[in-house]
């Protein structure tokens, strides 16, 4: 059973009477535990592809099966339920709720599921990312790297089967990036989660088992990392 | 519970998460942490509206209770009987046997004068014998005046304060009533059974009844009223007793008034008053709600990113909406409770505001029903208004977490919005129906409000469109920047034009309407219209009065004979038949009232022929002419017969025609006009009208009248105008007081929307400063923007009010509409300046602090 299956996925936007195809007939399948990177230049359609895979948006044609659930026919609220149950997210700009403390941010996915002991689980996760003492801080009181670590803790809170990361190091300096990336892969390995990474950082992409390159909305290569040319 | 299935299998794989309902409350609480102050600011807009509502309704409740508790003081006695033509001897005898104690009163209007000051004025003269008032305090200073007055044999008078003030007299002076002078023994501040305002209209001189005949004022045909005040032994059911004698009283044309009846009437009149005023308060509340809606809209815009994150993490659209609904509802509740507290305090001053209008002393205690109703109303309506922008939260797309420029999710039409609009309209109509108990009025009020809001919104939109369409690209940077602020994203044009415009509309309408009412009276004072009416002139005095007028070199503009009579039957049906047969819808007063009738064969300038013909006689039949609305209310047709009792003699008449009468003219107008040749021999008095050029001539003529014809009274239009002005002043003070809440709410909405938009504009202003804009430039941009907004809002409000007052003038008061410019210019100026002042005051941070400092503290 595949964890993510993408079939002939296309996305077209209508703008002032003209249609703009940003994703054209993309297909791939991921097995549980896979690590996977989507790389490509700005505007190539990689973020659109991530959004469609995670059920954040609807495709113009083609299908996405997440844990064998076909997302295309579900309402927005139904897709939200799927995300809450199976999916974790890491964003380039962290996307922490500014009015919640670090601990509360990590608790949100657990509380949405109605889980008991959300605070304890969240505290453990914060400790795992090295922020055990910072739980009561608000996002604005944390550095970029710390915020991304809180975001990592939140992403793993609901023990997702699939983790989507959109340029996770895009807003971080080199040293901080390295720490966050190490942590991301460690947590991923421990939890056995499937990782889908969108990046234009080829070095980061090279740490995954499989890389697809997109340009102009179409997949131009699908390969093992050692085949990706760095630089 | 929803469950979703895979495409290939039917077994459920995903269930909607079982979120703990308390989580919504926790999230609402956590999320509000950094915006509680601002959230409260949104809700502060409803505080004053609720305060006004609670104040006026509490006051209404307390007034009703006080009327109930002090109802005996409303009449000063258990029962009064009154009549204006002498009843039969037998009945007179009977009247003297009713009750345990009784006071007899004879009253009529007459000119009275103060010899020391030479002041002269028309007053109500009341001759009393007995111990009235039986209930309540007769407030007289010095109090000993009452004892002096009741001691028989002394020529003393008690005089209403208003009259003493007008004539420059005080206790100790003497007042001349007809042929007699009386020593003024006391100043009457309040008489039971009479609101203080009544003494402004017809101030009273009380004299002992024993001197009544000697005044020489009681002559045949004088407009004299007689009354008995009765006190019954405690425990008597007066209403039940009155029922047993009603038939007898009706037959003799005697009117009765009991405490129960007076209580009902007074209570109803004041219930109406407070209910209408609560509509004014409601306008303030709605205005506040518009502020809430606009503030919440800006709030929602800021929260969209957070909602998108929550949606990405798996929250449903409904959960997102609920979180922010909880926040706004809680703030609404706090605002409503504060409003209710403020309102309960404000009602303490309302008795002073109403002052002379109040029939009883009002105790002010907290009215829990008014507080609850106010909190409920405020909470519900503010949540409804907040829902309008909040609904958008349901549609926020999680895609916004990936793409900041994503905007497709909120641009579509939402059918639920229309449902909320419908609910708001329904709520407003329902509320105004509860207040007025009249659907027509409630719907009129709702439609009127919707139109006012609609017009103001349209004007705001038009301004935005015009500025964009004709943007003056060549103007200086400061002008362009402030003009562009009117239409750029997060602009406040619509909300400020609506809120401030509605406030300006209320103030301007008040001012214009007062002018309208006054102009209605002033109109009659213009040109060659009579401005002084002499009445109660007996047949034998007519020639003398006319020559007195001519001696003063004044014209006799009109001379009208008046005969008093009563209606016996309509088409042979008497009052009794009509009352028994409920299918005949003729009002009681048609038979009980006294008719003052004149006779002539032509119509005069204030009359227009409606149908039929002018009064005439043919073949011995008497064809009379009736005023059109009177004719309609009595459900009459041409050719119907009316039988009148002309002071004992029955006269059969036929309805020959109807007339439209312009009642605005200061001259005697008549419901019923007889043809000439029928009433000439009946007892009658005459009315003579003249025009006096100034106060001196007026006083000279009145002095002549008092000296030669003491029973003749004069109404000076100047005095009437002054009296009306005084009453209008008092009324408009009450209305202004209530409108004040709307205006203050408007300012609060203005203040809070400026503060809220400050957060939106701050970065931009700081950016401008960083790029080198100096303080003056930013100050000027801000001042110009708010100046334009304030001016447009004020002009819109004034335009609306001109239209509204024109409609009032045209259809309600039926007078030509000539608005005066000055008050309107004042309203426009003050509103604009206030808007600029508040706008600039709230933006002072940006002006005085270093840019980075501002960004850090707000970031």
Would you kindly provide a written description of the structure presented here, covering whatever features stand out?
The complex is a heterodimer of chains A (231) and B (859). Chain A is α/β, with parallel strands linked by helices and 231 residues long. Chain A has one domain: 3-Layer(aba) Sandwich (Rossmann fold), CATH 3.40.50. In chain A, 33% of the residues lie in helices and 28% in strands. In chain A, the strands form two sheets. Chain A has a six-stranded mixed sheet. A four-stranded antiparallel sheet of chain A has the order 2-1-4-5. Chain A is globular and about 50 Å long. Chain B has a six-stranded mixed β-barrel. In chain B, strands 14-16-22-19-21-20 form a six-stranded mixed beta barrel. In chain B, strand 4 (101-114) and strand 5 form a beta hairpin. Chains A and B meet through helix 1, strand 5, helix 2 and helix 3 of A and strand 2, helix 1, helix 9 and helix 10 of B. Chain A: It comes from Fibrisoma montanum.
What features would you highlight for this structure?
heterodimer, A: 231 residues, alpha/beta, Rossmann fold, six-stranded mixed β-sheet, four-stranded antiparallel β-sheet, 7 helices, 33% helix, B: 859 residues, six-stranded mixed barrel, six-stranded mixed beta barrel, 26 helices, elongated
What is the gist of this entry?
With 231 residues, chain A is an alpha/beta fold. Chain A has helices at 46-53, 76-86, 102-112, 118-128, 144-157, 174-191, 202-205; strands at 4-15, 18-30, 35-39, 61-66, 69-70, 87-90, 162-166, 194-199, 210-215, 218-223. At the A-B interface, helix 1, strand 5, helix 2 and helix 3 of A face strand 2, helix 1, helix 9 and helix 10 of B.
């Amino acid at each position: 059973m595949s964890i993510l299956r993408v079939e002939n996925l296309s996305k077209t936007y209508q703008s002032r009477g003209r249609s703009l195809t940003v994703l054209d007939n993309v297909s791939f399948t991921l097995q549980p535990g896979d690590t996977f990177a989507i790389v490509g230049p700005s505007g190539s359609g990689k973020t659109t592809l991530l959004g469609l895979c995670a059920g954040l948006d609807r495709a113009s044609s083609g299908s996405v099966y997440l844990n064998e659930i076909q997302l295309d026919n579900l309402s927005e609220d139904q897709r939200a339920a799927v995300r809450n149950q199976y999916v974790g997210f890491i964003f380039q700009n962290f996307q922490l709720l500014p009015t919640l403390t670090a601990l509360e941010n990590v608790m949100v996915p657990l509380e949405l599921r109605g889980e008991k002991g959300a605070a304890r689980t969240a505290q453990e996760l914060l400790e795992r990312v090295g922020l055990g003492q910072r739980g009561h801080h608000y996002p604005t009181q944390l550095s970029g790297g710390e915020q991304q670590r809180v975001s990592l803790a939140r992403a793993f809170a609901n023990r997702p089967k699939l983790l989507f990361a959109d340029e996770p190091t895009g807003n971080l300096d080199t040293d901080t990036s390295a720490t966050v990336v190490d942590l991301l892969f460690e947590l991923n390995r421990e939890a056995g989660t499937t990782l889908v990474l969108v990046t234009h950082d080829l070095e980061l992409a090279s740490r995954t088992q499989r890389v697809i390159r997109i340009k102009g909305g179409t997949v131009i290569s699908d390969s093992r990392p050692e085949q990706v040319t760095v630089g | 519970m929803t469950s979703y299935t895979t495409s290939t299998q039917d077994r459920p794989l995903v269930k909607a998460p079982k979120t703990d309902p308390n989580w919504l409350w926790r999230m609402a609480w956590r999320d509000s942490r950094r915006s509680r102050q601002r959230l409260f600011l949104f809700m502060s807009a409803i505080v004053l509206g609720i305060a006004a509502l609670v104040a006026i309704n509490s006051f209404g409740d307390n007034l009703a209770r006080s009327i109930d508790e002090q109802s005996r003081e409303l009449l000063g006695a258990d029962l009064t009987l009154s009549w204006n033509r002498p009843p039969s001897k037998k009945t007179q005898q009977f009247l003297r046997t009713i009750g345990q104690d009784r006071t007899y009163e004879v009253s009529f209007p007459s000119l009275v004068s103060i010899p020391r000051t030479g002041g002269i004025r028309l007053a109500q003269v009341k001759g009393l014998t007995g111990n009235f008032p039986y209930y309540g305090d007769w407030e007289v200073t010095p109090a000993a005046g009452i004892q002096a007055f009741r001691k028989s044999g002394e020529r003393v008078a008690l005089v209403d304060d208003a009259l003493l003030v007008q004539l420059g007299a005080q206790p100790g002076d003497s007042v001349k009533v007809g042929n007699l002078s009386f020593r003024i023994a006391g100043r009457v501040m309040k008489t039971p059974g009479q609101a203080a305002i009544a003494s402004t209209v017809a101030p009273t001189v009380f004299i002992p009844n024993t001197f009544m005949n000697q005044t020489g004022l009681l002559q045949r045909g004088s407009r004299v009223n007689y009354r008995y005040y009765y006190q019954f032994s405690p425990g008597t059911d007066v209403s039940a007793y009155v029922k047993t004698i009603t038939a007898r009283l009706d037959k003799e044309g005697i009117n009765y008034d009991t405490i129960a009846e007076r209580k009902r009437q007074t209570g109803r009149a004041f219930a109406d008053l407070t209910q209408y005023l609560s509509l004014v308060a409601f306008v303030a509340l709605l205005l506040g709600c518009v502020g809430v809606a606009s503030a919440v809209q800006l709030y929602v815009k800021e929260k969209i990113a957070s909602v998108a994150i929550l949606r990405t993490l798996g929250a449903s659209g409904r959960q997102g909406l609920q979180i922010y609904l909880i926040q706004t509802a809680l703030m609404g509740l706090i605002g409503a409770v504060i409003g209710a507290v403020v309102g309960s305090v404000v009602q303490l001053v309302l008795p002073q505001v109403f002052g002379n209008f109040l029939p009883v002393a009002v105790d002010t205690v907290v009215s829990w029903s008014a507080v609850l109703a106010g909190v409920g109303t405020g909470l519900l309506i503010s949540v409804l208004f907040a829902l309008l922008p909040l609904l958008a939260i349901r549609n926020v797309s999680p895609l916004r977490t990936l793409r900041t420029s994503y905007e497709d999710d909120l641009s579509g039409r939402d059918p639920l919005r229309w449902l909320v609009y419908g609910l708001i309209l329904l709520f407003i109509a329902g509320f105004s129906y509860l207040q007025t108990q009249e659907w027509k009025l409630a719907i009129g009020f709702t439609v009127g409000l919707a139109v006012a809001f609609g017009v103001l919104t349209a004007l705001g939109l038009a301004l935005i469109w015009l500025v964009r369409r004709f943007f003056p690209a060549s103007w200086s940077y400061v002008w362009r920047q402030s003009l562009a602020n009117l239409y750029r994203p997060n602009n406040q044009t619509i909300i400020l034009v609506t809120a401030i415009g509605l406030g300006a509309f209320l103030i301007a309408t008040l001012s214009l309407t007062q002018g309208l009412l006054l102009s209605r009276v002033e109109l009659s004072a213009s040109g060659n219209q009579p401005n002084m009416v002499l009445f109660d002139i007996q047949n034998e005095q007519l020639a003398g009065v006319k020559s007195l007028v001519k001696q003063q070199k004044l014209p006799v503009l009109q001379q009208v004979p008046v005969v008093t009579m009563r209606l016996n039957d309509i088409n042979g049906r008497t009052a009794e038949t009509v009352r028994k047969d409920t299918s005949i819808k003729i009002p009681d007063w048609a038979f009980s009232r006294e008719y003052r009738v004149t006779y002539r064969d032509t119509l005069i300038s204030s009359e227009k022929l409606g149908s039929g013909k002018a009064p005439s006689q043919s073949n011995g039949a008497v064809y009379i002419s009736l005023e059109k609305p009177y004719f309609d209310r009595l459900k009459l047709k041409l050719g119907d017969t009316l039988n009148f009792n002309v002071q004992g003699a029955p006269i059969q008449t036929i309805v020959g025609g109807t007339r439209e009468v312009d009642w605005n003219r200061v001259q005697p107008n008549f419901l019923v006009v007889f043809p000439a040749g029928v009433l000439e021999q009946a007892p009658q008095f005459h009315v003579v009208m003249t025009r006096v050029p100034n106060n001196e001539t007026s006083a000279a003529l009145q002095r002549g009248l008092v000296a030669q014809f003491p029973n003749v009274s004069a109404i000076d239009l100047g005095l009437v105008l002054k009296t009306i002005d005084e009453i209008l002043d008092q009324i408009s003070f009450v209305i202004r007081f209530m409108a004040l809440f709307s205006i203050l709410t408007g300012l609060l909405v203005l203040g809070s929307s400026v503060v809220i938009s400050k957060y939106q504009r701050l970065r931009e202003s700081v950016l401008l400063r960083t790029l080198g804009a100096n303080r003056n430039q930013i100050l000027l941009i801000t001042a110009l923007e708010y100046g334009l907004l304030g001016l447009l809002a004020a002009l819109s409000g004034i335009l609306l009010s001109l239209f509204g007052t024109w409609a009032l003038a045209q259809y309600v008061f039926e007078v030509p509409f000539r608005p005066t410019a000055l008050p309107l210019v004042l309203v426009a100026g003050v509103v604009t300046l206030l808007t600029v002042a508040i706008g600039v005051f709230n933006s002072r941070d940006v002006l005085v602090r270093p840019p980075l400092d501002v960004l850090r503290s707000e970031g």
